[in-house]
Amino acid sequence: MDDQQKLRKATYHLWTFTISKLISSFGAQVYAFAISFYILQATGSATSFAANLICNILPRTLAAPFAGYMADKYSRKMIVVLAQIATTMAIGGLLVVSFTSGLSLAAIYTTSCILSLTSMFSGVTFTSSITGLVDKERVQRAMSLNQMSISFAAIASPAVGGLLYGAVSMPVFLIMYMSASIAAVILESTMNFKLFANRKEIVSGQPKESMWQSIRAGISYLKLQPLLMAIIWISLLINFLFGAFEVGYSFILIEKLKMVSQHFGFTQGAFAVGMLLFSIYFSVRKEVKFPFLVSKRAIIGMGFVMGSIAVPLMIKMTYGLVFSFYVFMMFSLGALVIIVNTPIQVMMQKQIDDDYKGRVFSILETMSMALMPLGMVLYGFLYDIFAPQWILLISAGAFLVVILILARPSVIRDAHPELERSRPFNYSYKKGSA
């Protein structure tokens, strides 16, 4: 295949990848919306609802290292297609149960666990395959289009789910999700995951690594990459501290400020709109020159937004001003999440050896999620005891301290040695880093 044909195929991959992600993300989120409502209406129990959330998080966290091993050792196309087929079959199984014996919590929890696993295997493998699907010049665009499809699904799915939930039965929801999943399988099966791949061929007769040896090799590779280790520690601690926002935001708006549900939904939608608009921006702009520096500044911005959530608890505002304030804050947070993630993901795609990508991305996901359940439990306990504004302000302060220490100037210079040529901190430094 000549270069022109490869570029045309890469263009096809860009759009096929985006459409596939949009279809599967939209279907998954509409399904999640419907199942959440169904559990709450059927049981009236927050515990039952929380159990379903755990079924979505825990299997992903436990299975991530295995998904990374599989992505590095086996055909990535096969893993992605089989994961999507397994998703289709899991939904089909739940559909059969709904027709034969009616939906039960046990069936829903089992399906949630399976979908969590298939999503993990598909997500890690797809992320590991970006540089094999598209040329290096369009990696940032591919990552941005991926974020764009997820953001669009996040905006549209609650509206569509809300409209459909009262109008159609649960089996119809399941049939729609199955149809979306089948369409994704068809699209993914047409993609060439080896188009630009640079993976080593396994030599016949060469002793094979066991799974544990392979995972240990991935960890050893990470230890030799100081920048990746810094990113992992930042992700671990930042996600833990961000539990203050995850738990506190809904608690403050609904319990403390008595915001009506429709307006609360608008503030959540503003977050997705911020993500969508900045995903579009990154899909059309040139590649960021100093990604780690840009991400550091955006994380600092996230810390300030997190602390700002406490402002209406300390300063008296009208209801309209409170609503407008939170819409702006959530829009800003959505934008900052994309500014943090997109440059770093592009940098990692280009720097990590193709043979280690699955394990590195899976370890990163495991570490970033490892303290999230602990953070949720801890902050849930703290919000019941202490004033929420002080919890947010102290956590935001710790958030800023963590990023300023772990992404200190010496780490930034190691990540981007070319910044040394821009010293002292002059106009060209500032301009080049944006």
User: Total domains, how many?
Assistant: 2
Structural class: mainly alpha
Task: Tell me the number of strands.
Answer: 0
At the fold tier of CATH, the topology name of the largest domain is Growth Hormone, Chain: A
Q: What is the name of the CATH class of the largest domain?
A: Mainly Alpha
Major sheet attributes:
none
Strand content: under 5%
Explain the overall architecture.
With 434 residues, this protein is mainly α. The chain folds into two domains: 1-194, Growth Hormone, Chain: A; 210-434, MFS general substrate transporter like domains (Growth Hormone, Chain: A, Up-down Bundle), CATH 1.20.1250.20. It is 81% helix and 0% strand. It is built from 18 helices and no strands. The protein has helices at 3-43, 46-73, 76-100, 105-133, 139-165, 170-188, 211-223, 226-241, 243-256, 261-284, 291-308, 311-314, 319-351, 357-370, 372-383, 388-406, 409-415, 427-433. Helix 2 runs antiparallel to helix 14, helix 10 (261-284) packs parallel to helix 13 (319-351) and helix 11 (291-308) packs antiparallel against helix 16 (388-406). Mean pLDDT is 83; it is low at 425-434.
